[in-house]
Amino acid sequence: MSKPAFVRGAALLTAFALTLSLAACGDNEPASAPQRSGQPAAVDLPGEYAGSGASSQQSADEAWIASFHAGHPSSRISYDPAGSGAGVTAFLSGAVVWAGTDEPLTQDQVEASRSVCATGSAFDLPVYATPIAFAYNLPSAGLNQAGRHLKMDPATVARIFDGRITRWNDPRLVRLNPGVDLPDLPITVIHRSDKSGTTKSLTSYLKAAAGDAWPHKPGENWPNDVGQGAKGTSGLVMTLTQAEGTFGYADAAQTTGLGTVAVKVGEGYEPASAKGAAKALDHSSFLPQPAGSLRQVIDVDYASQTPGAYPVLLVSYDVVCQAYKRDPDRRKATFAKAWLTYLASEDGQAQAASNAGSAPLSPAVRERIMGSVRAIEGA
């Protein structure tokens, strides 16, 4: 069944909290297919509507907030990219209307959400996805040039990250890159030092695609003592650029000026791209859920062999309630419904794509998301 993919991009507002006047729309039921404009007739919703969570969504949220604001100036919406765990915690305490998270909710979190949700429990919907690039810094060898990619198979990537390939002219790298003058330099692995959804997605890919070459379980924490840690995407990318011979992983949109790997998929090699990530998601599936559940969780096919697919990617979710406690006039629910209707619209996806470089969700995936959004009990 087809799946989502997204893009990232330029910052439009602040780095830590985005606040703009927005009019939330309400009262109108979405059409049976995803809307093109995503801007239903405005309904006056004075007040503030806050979200918090994954920093991966920040650039997309900046674009969405700016565009949503143009048609809905009477309300204020903010998003604090404090991290997935902090965002879910804030949501479960009732401090924010929605959370952004790079990890689907755990069953314990679903049950805990009954303290803030008036109808059933919270549900998570995929709203953002981005390809994760394997990035390196080899400028003296001319290998940072745009459009030029070293080739690696999943097992080679795994052995580098696990400290078993340690030099750039290792015979295995030379064999994969005939005609490329690889320098006799040590490889310095740079990984995230903080808990990270990007690390979880990367290690999930390595576990699925590299076989025995990657002996570690998927997780948000880096699993070995190889290399040097750096906090956050910006810290990791900055560290990559500070020395020759570094190798790491980051949101592809943030790796400008660095070289990136084309990974082996099937019989070919695919560079990190939104188009490739979208194709990988199109060949993934949704996890089955209990009857009546509104959750839509993607089971990414990290081991995809589909030509043109790039299966190293991060999917990020928004978490909301069908109805909220302490929301007597249903303003929170009405806002959540309008906001997610916009994110799942053609226009919302196009805004994220043009400003954040994401791969827009396919119509089939957007319609699946809207099946859950329509159940939100707005005014």
TrEMBL record:
The keyword Transport applies. Transmembrane segments: none annotated. One of its GO terms (biological process) is phosphate ion transmembrane transport. It holds the Pfam family PBP_like_2. One of its GO terms (cellular component) is ATP-binding cassette (ABC) transporter complex. Residues 49-346 form the PBP domain. Residues 1-26 form the signal peptide. GO terms for molecular function: phosphate ion binding. Residues 28-55 are annotated as: Disordered. Keywords: Phosphate transport, Signal, Transport. Gene3D superfamilies: Periplasmic binding protein-like II (3.40.190.10). The keyword Transmembrane does not apply. PROSITE patterns: PROKAR_LIPOPROTEIN. InterPro entries: ABC_phos-bd_PstS, PBP_domain, Phosphate-bind_PstS. Belongs to the PstS family. This is Phosphate-binding protein. It comes from Bifidobacterium actinocoloniiforme DSM 22766.
